[in-house]
Design a protein that fits this description.
This protein is α/β, with parallel strands linked by helices. The protein is built from ten helices and ten strands. The chain has helices at 21-24, 34-58, 68-73, 75-83, 103-121, 139-145, 184-187, 195-198, 201-215, 225-232; strands at 9-11, 14-16, 63-66, 87-90, 127-128, 150-151, 161-165, 168-174, 192-194, 220-222. A four-stranded parallel beta sheet has the order 4-3-2-9. It has a four-stranded mixed beta sheet with strand order 5-6-8-7. A hairpin with a 2-residue loop joins strand 7 (161-165) and strand 8.
């Protein structure tokens, strides 16, 4: 096996740390339902540390998409994720579905989480993944306004590309994905991965086996989304 390097074929293992917000964003009453919240809390209390240990064992740096409210509530964990060399990317603030927000509310969600990530990492986030796998009519314009380097939301291609907006090619790179590469439909399995699902003891072994399988091939580069975006931005 050759070492991971930027001349290899990029493989992006990404992790969504939604935690309790998957429940509270759908029904605010769930803030008062401790058993419901405990399902999401498993992601940051048990799943994320177990994932970090596995990635460290393999010497990998990946991308974690984290909502702003989870950063506020779990700042030490997010600092640990960043200190381990992983990218912290934008995943909204409250994880409310964007089509339910006004333009001002969506702008506030963008700005709060941009500031929270910058406070931890020292820079604005490069990447964005929406909650609920959908955009509002304003989302694309906001991504361009706030200078995001890449999005990981769309399902329409197999390879990265730059978005065309109003007939013009932009610098915003898309890393497309598909539900068959996500752990949610299989465990309610991404190469987009969710901490409370893939972080279970019985499932982390599958991630370990997947990483070993990927790295058994020549010329693969398992890395962060921002590093691949920077490597590709002048070629797409």
């Amino acid at each position: 096996m050759k070492s991971d390097r930027s001349s290899g074929f990029p493989v992006l293992l990404t992790f969504d740390l939604d935690a309790e917000l998957l429940w509270t964003s759908r029904d605010p009453k769930n803030w008062n339902r401790p058993v419901a919240l405990s399902q999401g809390a498993y992601g940051h209390r048990e799943g994320a540390p177990r994932i970090l240990n596995l990635l460290a064992k393999h010497g990998l740096r990946c991308t974690f998409f984290i909502p702003g409210m989870i950063i506020e509530r779990n700042r030490e964990l997010v600092k640990d994720i960043h200190a381990a060399g992983h990218e912290i990317a934008h995943h909204s603030y409250s994880h409310r579905w964007l089509e339910s927000l006004t333009l001002q509310e969506e702008r506030e969600e963008f700005e709060k989480t941009i500031n929270l990530i910058a406070n931890v990492t020292g820079r604005n986030p490069f990447g964005y993944r929406s909650p609920g796998a959908e955009f509002s009519p304003h989302t694309m314009d906001l991504l361009l306004e706030y200078g995001f380097l890449y999005s990981s939301n769309f399902f329409d291609r197999d390879a990265p590309y730059k978005h065309i907006v109003n007939g013009k090619k932009t610098e915003l790179i898309e890393f497309p994905f598909a539900w068959v590469l996500d752990d949610a439909p299989f465990f309610l399995y991404s190469i987009q991965l969710v901490g409370r699902m893939i972080g279970r003891p019985s499932r982390i072994t599958l991630l370990d086996r997947l990483i070993r399988y990927i790295r058994s091939h020549k010329n693969v580069w398992i890395t962060r989304c921002d590093e691949v975006a920077l490597a590709l931005k002048d070629t797409l």
